[in-house]
Amino acid sequence: MVKQTKTGKAFEYSILVEFYNRLNKLTRVSIVKNEPFNTAKKYFESFDADEKDAYVLNASAAVNFLMDIEPRLSHGISEKDELQLEIANDKKGQSGDVRDVIFIRSIQKWEIGISAKNNHRALKHSRLSGQLNFGKKWAGIKCSDSYFEEISPIFDKLSSINRQNKNTTWDEVFQDKNKEVYTPILEAFKKEILLIQEKDKKNFAASLVSYLVGNNDFYKLIKSKYKLEIQAFNMKGTLNQPFKNIKPRATIPKLKLPSRLIELTFKPNNHNTLIAYFDEGWQISFRIHSAKSTIESSLKFDINLISTPHTLFTNHLFIGTK
Hints:
Blueprint: H1 3-23, E1 29-31, H2 35-45, H3 49-69, E2 83-87, E3 101-105, E4 110-118, E5 122-124, E6 127-128, H4 134-139, H5 145-164, H6 170-173, H7 177-199, H8 204-213, E7 218-223, E8 227-233, E9 261-266, E10 273-278, E11 283-289, E12 299-307, E13 313-318
Parallel strand pairs: 1-2, 4-7
Antiparallel strand pairs: 2-3, 3-4, 5-12, 6-12, 7-8, 8-13, 9-10, 10-11, 11-12
């Protein structure tokens, strides 16, 4: 498991445990001890004491803040109103649910979630290949035959090389992988995105951004060395709800999803990154790359949020470390 995944899982575990320790004194709460929980616990326990302390310190700061703006975390309507804490299966992200830690009160029909990031801000690490129908998965509209006809020769070549020798490196085959692979794939991707938008102008932009950012409302916790950043993606208005007459101590505004894709263009002086400009202040970058030095049959996307609506709630907590 790559280091970024390992540190992310450790952060998820520390968040869940800190919430449990705090809330257990105030309300009925339980932990869903599933496979993702056991995996996260294993990786958390693999770190040394100082690193564990840093995770716990950040998680504790998040607990203090979120309990103030989410009163339902600590308040149940009866003894039977149990709050369940769960680490989500990674497969949920494939359907657009980016939440890593989920809090559920079944009796109240209420839930919120957290996306935990350790030293990175990437939205998704999707892939493109000669068979993957990104249009259907991302926006519910199938990619055209012309898109697959355009990309197939390139991906067929990559697949053939990989089948012959899985240790073949990019430098052994391509003089300029940007010109020969990345740019033509992105040109086809760009053309297809614009074609899909024409098929559903009313809903496409909102559907795409919702899938990439997260189709359930959530809080994003971004841990860095001395700071914890908390962002509230409240697209559907499900965050920040009061409990009876107990109101949150801060107001989380609702975010507007975009209604149209204004422009999709290559990043200046760059051959492997597209920038999508939407209305309402959304900007998203799509960087395509080979995840390894050896050639594989698919390519990886790093998808990042460059700009958000000015109404995005963001709070910075400065964390003291040893």
